[in-house]
Structures are given as C-alpha cells and as structure tokens.
Amino acid sequence: MKKVLLGMISALFVMFVVGCSQQNEDSENQTGAEEQQTITLGVTPWTSTVPPTEIAQILLEDMGYNVEQTQADAGSTYIGLSRGDIDVFMDGWFPVHDVYIEKYGDSIEETAVSYTGADAGLVVPSYMEDVNSVEDLVGMEDQFNNELYGIEEGASVTGIIDDLIEGYGLDMEQVNSSEGGMLAQAMRKLENEEPVVFYGWRPHTMFNKLDIKVIEDDKGFFETATVKVITNKELQETAPDAYELLSNWSIPLDDVEEMIVKIEEEDVPAKEVAQEWIDNNQDKVNEMLGK
Questions:
Q1: Residue 13 pLDDT > 90, yes or no?
Q2: Which of 193, 214, 235 is the last residue of a domain?
Q3: Does the pLDDT at position 31 exceed 50?
Q4: Are residues 82 and 206 in the same domain?
Q5: Count of other CB atoms within 10 angstroms of residue 247
C-alpha cells in the first residue's frame, strides 16, 4: 500500500513540475510576443516610395521587429513622424521637403541619403519641339487650356509649382490629383498628340513608357533632388539596431527605377521585387546592417 501511495505521490509531483515548466514557457512566449516592438513606416502615394519601403520592412522583420505601413500624403506623413505615430519615411525629397524639416526639426531628422541625382520639374511631350523651357510656355498658355497638371495638394511640390506659375507670370492653373490621376490626364493628351504640361520626376516609369522631356527652369524653382531616409528622433534610442540599418541606407537611383518598372509595368508583387533586390545585393545589405 505504501508503495502505491509513494508511486501516486511521485506521479503527481512529476505532473506538477511539468505543468509549472509548461506554464513558465507559455508565459515567456507570451511576454516575448507582447514585447515585440512595432516600427511604423510612412508610405506616400508615389511609386518611388514602394521599393525602399518594402525592402526596409523585410530587413526590419528579419531583425525581429513587427512592421506596419501607414498610407498618407507627404504632409500627413511628416506630421505623423513629428508626433511619433510614424517612425520612418523612406522617401524624403530634398530640397523640396526642407519645409518639413524646418517645421518639425525638433522631433524628426534626416537619417541617411538613399540616392542623389533625382531630376524633377515640368514635363512636356517630345513632339513639342519648340518648348524646351518654362519660359517657352509664356504666351501659349491657351494651347494647354491654361492648365498644368500636378499631384495631390498635400505634397509640398504643389506649392513650388504655384510659385513657379506666379514667378514666370504664366496664365495657368494647377490641376491637382493623385499621381495616377495626373498621369491619366497627361496620357489622354499624349495619345492625341495634344499640348500638355505636367509634373514629372525620376525615378518613375513615365520616362520608360512615355516620349516626354523635362523642360529647363531658368529661375531655379526646381533643383535636382536628393532622396533621404527620415526618422523620428526617438528611434535611435528605442530601436538602436534598426536606426543603424537606416542610418547606413543607400540604394542607387537606377535600382529603384528598375524595381518600379517591375512592379508597375510587369505586375511583379512589390514584396517579391524587394526580396529579389536583397538576394542580389547581399554585400550591400550587410553593409547597411553594419556587418
């Protein structure tokens, strides 16, 4: 009888120990899940934002972070960065976005240069042989129905275009819409070989699929852009390894444009395109990771 009791007590003791061990393990797993830090990436409605954002998400997730994307126009993205609602923006265009740094510089920073040499300005069809500068538009505004197509009103470039219209004394009105809406308007005009002027920039597929040219801006409203990674200033302290990755960030403009073509023209999923770039540029990735 004693042996039976001892056996039962031993069995109960083993079950108790295993149960406690399992409970501790479950508790640790739950705590680990709860402690997984989330990094939020701001995403503007521009094709140039997609490739670097997708690459950053894959790398940050591989580092153990939970990554979310927040869609917003440029102005709202910078407001989110300043409040800490957004941690990172991979597509800051400078000097156009200097206005945001001046406004929110106490809480956001220019963390890295992604690439340089990004041309931007007013664009016309190549068949408009006599229009090679903004100055050439003066006096022929009626041929364009006195309209100049631009992107969404929340973008700081819309203010630059308004200043340009005033600075050159153009009798034109900027018509704002999404990037896709602007291009749809322009393509309808191009198909009929009608006069049209709109905002264009690289990297973008428009220069691959449309016969267009950037016209000269002698008054200097547009400058060749430098694209930068922008972060909330708290990120360096709250996620130092993520900040190190982003501070080392650099992807050539031609690579970004090539990825945009694959996503927009060849319908390859953005995440697949980003993973392919990572796989083909492991040395570059290791450099950004500080390895």
A1: no
A2: 214
A3: no
A4: no
A5: 16
